[in-house]
Amino acid sequence: MAIANNQIETNENKNKEKEVKQYIVVQIGSEKYGIDISYVDNIVRMQKITRVPKAQEYFKGIINLRGEIVPVMSIRLKMGLEDDTFTSASRIIILKIEDKGSLGVIVDEVCEVVNLSEDQIENNNINSNHVKDTFINGIGTSGDQLISLFEINAIVDEKDNT
Fold first, then answer.
1. What Gene3D superfamilies does the annotation carry (predicted)?
2. Which of 21, 18, 30, 17 is closest to 142 using CA atoms?
3. Beta bridge mates, 132
4. Dihedral of alpha carbons 114, 119, 120, 121, sign
5. Helix locations, the chain, DSSP H
């Protein structure tokens, strides 16, 4: 019986370990946001973005990433914030989205990678008309900082929310 109980405890511990997710913490303006690391394919330095005519305002254009053409968008503009100001810390995060391929998103700075368990994440239950809030699916706490967790599918949706 001790062996059976031990196996049950081991299975419970494995389930608890699965609840932890990794997020890349990025800075946009003065706020920190988390992007589920499972969507992240690459992080590249800012480079020349070729503008595409008649695209939505938040689509900055395309880049050539090792022979692959990747569209790049501004999360700032998609959320209705002021336009991007590029610095030496600015990065393009290349996301791999099922059924949609690759997409680059511009962030002000990549800060760190954090592990968040389900008890460190509070789901967003706020029904808000603020465009910015529709892109957030929860708030994570890491130490004393609050991290707004992006709902990647809402961000990459081509529907114009502004």
1. CheA-289, Domain 4, SH3 Domains
2. 21
3. none
4. positive
5. 2-18, 75-78, 152-156
Chain-centre distance of CA 68, in angstroms? 21
pTM over 0.90: no
User: What are 20-61's pLDDT values in tens digits?
Assistant: 889 999 999 889 999 999 999 999 999 999 999 988 889 999
**pLDDT tens digits along 113-139:** 999 888 888 886 655 555 445 788 888
For residue 51, give its domain range. Answer: 2-156
Are 98 and 80 contacting, i.e. CB atoms less than 8 angstroms apart?
no
CATH classification at residue 20: 2.40.50.180
In a domain, 77, yes or no: yes
Please tell me the total count of domains within the chain: 1
Q: Does residue 65 lie within any of the structural domains?
A: yes
Q: Phi and psi of 62, rounded to 5°?
A: -130, 155
In a domain, residue 161? The reply is no
90, 106 contact by CB (below 8 A): yes
Residue 162, in any domain of the structure = no
Backbone φ and ψ of 23, nearest 5°: -130, 140
Of residues 18, 25, 106, the one with CA closest to residue 59: 106
As a whole number of angstroms, the distance between CA 142 and CA 102 comes to 29
